[in-house]
Amino acid sequence: MVKKSFYYKSASLFTLLTFMLLTAACGAKTTTAPTGAGTAAPNGSPAAGSSAVSSTPASSSKEKVVVNIGIQGKTGVLVFARDKGYFEKAFSAVGAEVKWNEFASGPPHFEAIAAGRLDFGATGGTPLISGQVGGVDFKGIAVTSDGKKGNMIVVPKNSPIKELKDLKGKKVAVAKGSSAYNFLYMAIDKAGLKGDDVKVIQLQPDEARPALDSGAIDAWSIWEPYATTAVYQTGSSVLVSGEDLNINAPSFLIARTKFTQEHPDLTVLFLKTYEEARKYYVEHQDEIANELSKTQKLDKAIIVDVLKNTFPILSPITPEFAKAHQEQADFLQSVGAINKKLDTSKVLESKFVEQALKK
């Protein structure tokens, strides 16, 4: 088991994040507007199940509702949906407007939610845990991945590090509070290492990649598409993945609680639109790979591998997913990275996705 003494350093991350979140929440303002009507597919035809949504148009309000959606990275369903205008078409049909917000990783989503500046987003499970510790009023409304393939520890070309135990005394970069953060600590725990055996360097992805390339760090705990991109572009190698260690760490769609309460129909509409985009995304992988290789100026082979490692789903929060998420929180609490026991079920809610997935 990892020593708690090291994790008091890690706990400072959550304390800082908690302070930031609570401070932001003090001045939070929310936009009110009526709930919307049925969704429309990108070609203008009604989406399946749209009859479950109220027919009251959002445009009947004095104030037009603005739906703020967060994204991170250059691939994934939300990025694809943004580029193709899925949400703009769906929400404009009910008199609502969509605004996109880009983030480097998961934790900043929750600061934005606390400030009332974000309504929906997609993150790994660890940011949900830190958000719950910080008292952010949000809900995890659906599962988008089991998380087994998404997180990896990458080492540079010709690295002497061949197995997890070789990380002892090495500098490992990771984005604080991200899914890769928890993955790193669970990985070294499985290797029998003590917490202070590894020198953790807190870096966001755009900072960590140059550090890996220059040799300033010895390893990098990161998610896709950054891991595969580093492998192809620099000859780095994957030391271990969540799949290798059988670490089930689900990722989620998240929502600001007050928005879901004031606009339940728009919450269902968000999920219906996500599912429509997701289906196209997974059924046309070669087309998606071709487009991404052009827009991101990456070899198609890179994109193909990234897509294989990040196959998206849209699922209610099943008992298995809920248990895996609770185990993530329990692990962080057991090593002192968070200072209290969490009941993660309090921030998980499947009723919207269950309605959205009805035929």
Overview of the molecule:
The strands form 3 sheets. A 5-stranded mixed beta sheet has the order 7-6-8-5-9, sandwiched between helices. A 3-stranded antiparallel beta sheet has the order 3-10-4, with helices on both faces. A two-stranded parallel sheet has the order 1-2. The protein is an alpha/beta fold. The N and C termini lie far apart (47 Å). The chain is built from 15 helices and 10 strands. It is globular and about 60 Å long. α2 crosses α11 and α4 packs across α5 (125-133). 51% of the residues are buried. Helix content is 44%, strand content 15%.
Summarize the structure.
The protein is of the alpha/beta class and 359 residues long.
Task: Measure the end-to-end span.
Answer: 47 Å
Q: Biggest sheet, strands in spatial order?
A: 7-6-8-5-9
The best one-word shape is globular
Please tally the β strands and state the result: 10
* SSE pattern: HEHHEHEHEEEHEHEHEHEHHHHHH
> Biggest β-sheet: count, sense, barrel?
5 strands, mixed
Assembly annotation: single chain
The number of helices is: 15
Strand content: 15-25%
